[in-house]
Amino acid sequence: MEARGGEPFEARSRGQDLVVRVAVLSDTHAPRRWKSCPPRVAEHLRDVDLILHAGDVCTAGVLDELAAYAPVHAVKGNNDGDDVVAPETLELDLGGLRVAMIHDSGAARGRLARLRRRFPRADLVVFGHSHIPLDESGDGLRIFNPGSPTDRRRQPYGTMGLLRIEGGALAEAAIVPVT
């Protein structure tokens, strides 16, 4: 899938290191949960170079709204309508960091090993579906679920993720509350 928003993705360069700031969203569930971009989500989107959405936008209008902030890459979720044109999986090189995306990573048990087999070249796998934020590492792989900013289910807060990639490595990953 091409980045939405008309502008090609360009990372900012600081000194010798390439720096890429990424917002990570999943499970926005429009229009039932996401009527428009929540103000606390928008605050974070203003400072990013790229947005990743791990599925269940439900309507393509969410991707168009996000593209007003930065280029967007998305994968299709199980609740996405026919108007959401996105692949089931996606692999990207973000400033030298190999990132894979999928909506549903399957059961928690064996997840790291299963995602390592599915995406053998990835440094980071971004996923959604459960609405449960997760940042876990093992076997040379980091897996990251930003949770949901609008449908927190049994979680204390609605959340999203923020990544900072420097010099081809994940320098920082944070799950931030937005409700």
UniProtKB/TrEMBL annotation:
Q: In its UniProt entry, what is this protein called? A: Phosphoesterase
InterPro entries per UniProt: Calcineurin-like_PHP_lpxH, Metallo-depent_PP-like, Phosphodiesterase_MJ0936/Vps29
A Pfam family: Metallophos_2
From which source organism is this entry? Planobispora longispora
- Which terms does the record give in the GO molecular function aspect? hydrolase activity; metal ion binding
Family, similarity comment: Belongs to the metallophosphoesterase superfamily. YfcE family.
Record key words, sorted:
Metal-binding
The record's EC number reads 3.1.4.-
Q: Which residues form the Calcineurin-like phosphoesterase domain?
A: 21-166
